[in-house]
Each structure stands twice: as C-alpha cells, then as structure tokens.
Amino acid sequence: MNTDTATELAVDCRGIEKSFGEGETRVQVLRGTDFDARLGQMTFLVGPSGCGKTTLISVIGAILSCEAGEVHVLGSDLRRMKKGALADFRLANFGFIFQEYNLLPALTAAENASIPLVARGESNRDAERSAEELLGKLGLEGHTAKMPAQLSGGQQQRVAIARALIHEPRLLICDEPTASLDAASGHNVMELLRDVALAAERAVLVVTHDHRIFEFADRIHHMSDGVIESTDEHPNEEQDG
User: Fold this and answer.
1) How many domains, the chain?
2) At a CB cut-off of 8 Å and minimum separation 6, what does 1 contact?
3) What pLDDT was estimated at residue 6?
4) In a 3-state reduction of DSSP, which class is residue 179?
5) Beta strand pairing status for 219-224 and 227-233?
6) Which residue, 52, 99, 113, 145, shows the most beta carbons closer than 10 Å to its own?
C-alpha cells in the first residue's frame, strides 16, 4: 500500500448535513459530518448499517445534494456547481463500484465495461476495444463476449471494476465491493483495486462492513449516527507491526 506522506486531498467535506422527509417524518442522517480522503490512498468508511455511510458517499459522488456544509472534491466546490456542470464533472472524474455489480444483463462484459466511454461520445467499436484490453489486464481475456449470467460473481465484479476504471477517473467510490464474495474472491478483488486502481493521482474510497479487507486500507474513518467518530491512520502498518 501507499504509505508515504502525500497529503493532497481528493475529498474535503466539512459540516455536512442531510435529512430525508419533512415535519414529523424528517430524519437527519448526516449531522455536521467532516470527512476527507487523500490522493494516492485507499480510504475506508466503516460503521453500522443506517449510520449514514451510503448517504455520505452519495453526497461526495454528486448523486445527492446536502442542506449545509462544504463539499470539495478534486479541488472543485460541488455545492456551487450547476446541475449540468455537476453531471459533466461526475462523468469525467468519478468511477463507481457497487455490491450488486449493476451490470446490464443484455450486454456482453465488454459492452458493460465500455458504457462510460460511450457516454462520453466514443464510438461503440473504439469503446469496446478499450474495454477488451482492460478486461484482459483484469484476468478476463476470453470472457469479454460473455453475458453477465455466464460469469461468476468474482468475474462480474471484475467487469464492474473495468467499467469504473475505463475512463480513468480520479475518484473511485466502492460501495461494499466484497460483500457478495467469498473470502478468497474478496481478497482478489481488493488486490486488483490496489494494483490497478490505486495511483498517485487517484483516490479510492471504500465503504464496507467486511473486516477481512481492512488490511488494504491506508486510512479508516469510523462512522456512527451521522458523524465520523474516529480515524485510524495507516491501520495496515499497525497490523504488520
């Protein structure tokens, strides 16, 4: 893992507040939350179900807006960006990996992985060629023409990783990327993320309940009841020691 002293922030959130519902049904999920993630590092966000993890990464990923606070991502103030500019920024800079893979069943592995490039205006042929090359690097050479139903869970997750990385985003957001995998497959996925996704100019943010993969974290933010309670710096070094 990258354990140098690089401190450039990819994500810097201060005082984030987010609620759902109105009146008596209003529930405040984020309660003045502070959060940061650094370029060149893999940052984990952990905590019990319902503590606000998914809401927080949805705000960071420009999927949800917040009611108060500051959200700076890759040097840009997301709260000051207009809707169209925000959508363009998200497409250019963010990659998402989800627990359920979210692959389109009627598309091949290569077609699924090429979606972000097609969305940016590349031809289907060029996008699929790039996807096939990346899938090969991820160990899926010979599987690029298969449908998701023909792939194992670990292979589907690799397609999801390829789709998230194909457009070279600077922020990769992973929501429970190993929850549906056995220990060996989950470990392999995290090794891929470390070796393929992690780079000096990119930040990787992982939301997880899976203690089996904590060894891959450079930093772990512990969340409870809508706030970050504590942060472990370089926990993998502590385990090695």
Assistant:
1) 1
2) 42, 194, 198, 216, 217, 218, 236
3) 41
4) coil
5) antiparallel
6) 113
